[in-house]
Write a structure and sequence with these properties.
Blueprint lengths: L2 H33 L3 E7 L2 E5 L8 E5 L6 E6 L5 H28 L7 H29 L3 H17 L21 H18 L2 H11 L12 H14 L3 H13 L7 H13 L4 H14 L9 H17 L2
Antiparallel strand pairs: 1-2, 1-4, 2-3
Helix pairs in contact: 1-2, 1-3, 2-3, 3-4, 4-5, 5-6, 7-8, 7-9, 9-10, 9-11, 10-11
Amino acid sequence: MSMVADFFMAAGGAAAGYVIVGLAAALGKLIVGAVLRFRFDEFVFFMIRVARRTGTGEKGLSFGLCDPQPFISCNMLDTRYTKMRNLIYGAFSMAAALFFTETVWFQLYGTEIMPKNAMTQVMAVVMAVYTLVLFFWLCVSQKKKAGNGAAGIMRREYERCIAAVTAGQEPGSLQIQWAPGTGNLTDSAIVKKYLLMCYYHFLDRGEYEGVKKIMDEYEKYVPEKWTQSELNVLCEFVFYHVIIVPNEGKAKYYGKPFLEKLDGREDVNVKRAFAYWLFFVQGDKGAALQIAVQALKLVKSYHLEGCRAMEERLLEALIKKIEQTP
């Protein structure tokens, strides 16, 4: 066989091994998630996405395309988060990946049922390496979540809270354990997620001193350049400096990158912040009212079900303010 043929067979084997382990790990999460009564969130196969419908009255799954991802993933949400349940969830996913990997290796090198060629040998190696990577990732992630320090608290609290809010619990009703010293942590990704949950908690309750405390802490992690994926956070900085603690300078500072990233497909909270910006900063009543009404129509399909009532209140308050303004 030519070297070119061997190369393409090896490439096919590598892709097959990667996909098999990825699907096995996802299958493990689906099975144990169903047994433990986790809430299905989404399944991503590179650029194909299957997600739970979130609109009021809607049931079943939605199918569509998403931004291409270099992996296969399955996400299940646990509204009764505990360390043990999370460990079982991750371990079962790992066990499924390991089972498929060992089966291939046994058939290839033990019983020799599978033929040894460029494709099968590379596939087996890729599966073994990928499974090993997943194992170390599981060990590291579980160790981080199990810690009693600020980082461990934030990871556990974020996963518990996001699952509850997605399932429909209002963020204001959550009991969130405060993790002190967040400004000293290097893992900014989890800090930001945790602080956003705290922000929604205080915003929903109308406790603006709490909101101020969270946003003061959050500003320690503001990036030099915002990405499109951070738009849902950027909009809250705009909203905060427009209406909660009015500061025209900071509102425009955050408003500039915020406006640059708008493309008309934003979530409810982004549209809400944009409507407030249009009215209080630009003084455009007509445009503000139009965006606010658009957002109000989308509230029932907002993926954070627990935040729907809060978003509705904020939008209705703005619409009332616009209508009462000469």
